[in-house]
Amino acid sequence: MREALHHLWTGVSSIPHAAQILAAAYVVYLVLLAGYIVLQKREPVATLSWILSLAALPYIGLFVFYLIGPQKIVRQRLRRGRSREGMEAYNVVCPADLHCTELARIGQATTGLPPSTATAVDWLVDGAATYAAILAAVATARRHVNLEYYIFEPDHAGSALRDALAERARAGVKVRLLLDAVGSSRIRRSFLQPLVDAGGEVVWFHPRQLLKPFQRPWLNLRTHRKLVVIDGTVAFTGGINITDEEDESRDPNAYRDLHTRLSGHVVRSLQLVFLEDWIYASGQGMDNFDREDLFPSDGPVREDGTVQAQVLVSGPDSSWEAIHRMHVAAIHEASRRVWLVTPYFVPGEAARMALTSAALGGLDTRLLVPRRSDSLFVTLAGRSYYDELLQAGVKIYEYGPRMLHTKAFIADDDTCIVGSANFDHRSFRLNFELSMLYHDHRLTAQLDAILAQEFERATPVLPDRHRPLWRQRLPEAFARLASPLL
Question: Which run of H or E residues covers position 166?
Fold first, then answer.
């Protein structure tokens, strides 16, 4: 190998003015890519990080950028807009029957989905309870079951749900399953065949296309949503994927996580989210759907619900970073406390400023993260922010030994956000995410009780903790440099 490289270099160096040609090619490469990245108008830190990476790793950096570099999805935004034609009037701003706060108005302005209501919201802690509730609800389906998942594994949990869906499909129920091509990459055609044979439809979100000419792969832009909608009246969403790794009844070290079961008018918004994703991924049009089936005229209305609820979505097809913006706005609105639980903590400047300002202002500001997540690099990056937060008065707790996968937020005693989005750059900018905003004292009190137990099981992070230079401080500092790219 060394001899081959030597011969290659000898051949190149024999070309007249080879050094000047290579230098000129390097400059052109860097200028063109830097210009392209700058025109994306992302955060300066992320922009500079990409430019420096490309400069330090010429040509190799280009390949990495080709695979996972920042991308805009204009086409999806257009298709999403078309998919809303003919749906109910989602342009009504703050209906008169709801108390619309500034937070609710921001949510609607950035997502197009207005505040709504739920007749019931049930918290589901961990996978065993969640899977049992989903299977029970699927068994009652009479018209359709629509599902969208990031991770759907061909294990016990996945097989049980597949078989339940196939049984409903054979009974004449319309079953649509949308899976992320990267998160669910372990699934093979043979695993899905029983569902397809029964009449169910399966579509892959952003299939890998590394060899497709003149088309950058969507490798870094995934649907991270976890969503089930049944007959347009009942829905499940939250942080739990379909995998035995989240089923504590099968694995005592399963992820600790949180999910919700919803019913009522807000399910119509969740149905719309699924419909838009399905149309985009499948290429189907509205002619392929029975609108009365998806949005039944005799379904729940806004006035039926007692819980104020609003669907929050974000993704690379929008520059508003709706879920990120809503967290920051909710922190600024809080007057008594801010509790944040996330498995991956890589905050941007706005989020760090909001958290530290809340603590400096005397609010009960807490952060709960895993003692060690399933990504060591992200764990190190998150810990690099501890000193600043602790100095401001933020109370930080690390949960373990089980991996904490819950994504939850509480502001004061009446506002909470729960969903699929982590508190990091990937969830806020790259992934298609789905969270729920609730404005309800009773529901927030229930979540308070759940999270209070998690804080009791966690270990507080002390400001004067021992942190060796080579094993902790230096790796954390290097991981933080790459945090805008995570």
Answer: helix 156-170
